[in-house]
Specification:
The complex is a heterodimer of chains A (67) and B (185). Chain A is an alpha/beta fold and 67 residues long. Chain A has two helices and four strands. The model of chain A has no long low-confidence stretch (mean pLDDT 91). Chain B has one domain: Roll (CBS-domain). Chain B starts with a helix and ends in a 16-residue tail after the last helix. The chains are: A alpha/beta (67), B alpha/beta (185). At the A-B interface, strand 1, helix 1, helix 2 and strand 4 of A face helix 1, strand 1 and helix 2 of B.
């Protein structure tokens, strides 16, 4: 199960090398995003688009607001 | 959406998946930095007075009145133990029986806005409605502060002056945006 985290953990995990994935539509990402985030819209998430990512590295997802 | 994305990543073989459920809105609520062209947009949370006075439902009117007058404040936000906004009470409403409770005179369910709300559109709405201030809270109702319209107007005026100054120095390098772009969610 994915683990829910807060602001502090986000920053700690990024410092430790985690991927930070912005899963909103690309337009929202382009306008404004969390520092260091990579755009990977939820509709595009598949084996091909994530092939270059290390499966054992921590990965954090976020979107616009509470979900 | 981030929960579905996180689950999808697990199904794709990722072993350490985390979900930042407050999202970008929660990030902005904490006044943390962002990147991108909209990052410079002033927002309600940037200008809100985060030390706005608060009181509890069962506080005595007389006590709250004395506190507000001593602090030179004109209103108090009524919150519960979790700092969730329950109401608002203005100084003039506290002139009644000092033994009454705040609950008896408060305005229940005041209008609130999110800290991430772009300031220019918000101030325009406040001007139209002649609202001098508005409560700023998180998505789950926790008080962030009170935005005074005068502070917002001052901030926008300063920003406008700054943009004009920059344009005068290097017009090509500082294209003026025609208003704040709409937010993409």
């Amino acid at each position: 199960m994915p683990v829910e985290i807060g602001h502090d953990e986000v920053q700690q995990l990024i410092a430790a090398g985690a991927y930070l994935l912005d899963v909103r539509e690309r337009e929202g990402y382009d306008a404004e995003r969390l520092p260091g985030a990579v755009s990977l819209p939820i509709k595009t998430l598949d084996r091909e688009t994530t092939d270059h990512l290390d499966r054992n590295r921590p990965v954090i997802t976020y979107c616009w607001e509470w979900t | 959406m981030s929960d579905r994305a996180a689950s999808r990543l697990e199904s794709l073989g990722f072993t350490r998946v985390y979900r930042y459920s407050p999202g970008k809105d929660g990030w902005l609520t904490m006044a943390l930095p962002t990147e991108g062209p909209d990052a410079a947009t002033p927002r309600a949370g940037d200008v809100a007075d985060r030390d706005a006075p608060t009181c509890a439902l069962h506080d005595r009117l007389g006590d709250v009145r004395d506190r507000l007058r001593a602090a030179g404040e004109t209103s108090c936000i009524v919150v519960n133990d979790q700092q969730v906004v329950l109401g608002r009470v203005r100084l003039e409403a506290l002139d009644g029986d000092a033994e009454q409770t705040v609950e008896a005179v408060m305005e229940a369910g005041p209008t609130t806005v999110r800290p991430s709300e772009p300031l220019d559109a918000l101030i325009e709405r406040m001007q139209k409605r002649r609202a001098a201030s508005i409560v700023v809270s998180t998505a789950d109702g926790v008080l962030v502060g009170v935005l005074h319209r005068a502070d917002g107007e001052r901030r926008l005026s300063e920003q406008k002056g700054s943009v004009l100054d920059s344009a005068a120095i290097s017009p090509a390098a500082n294209p003026t945006r025609a208003g704040t772009p709409g937010r993409s969610r």
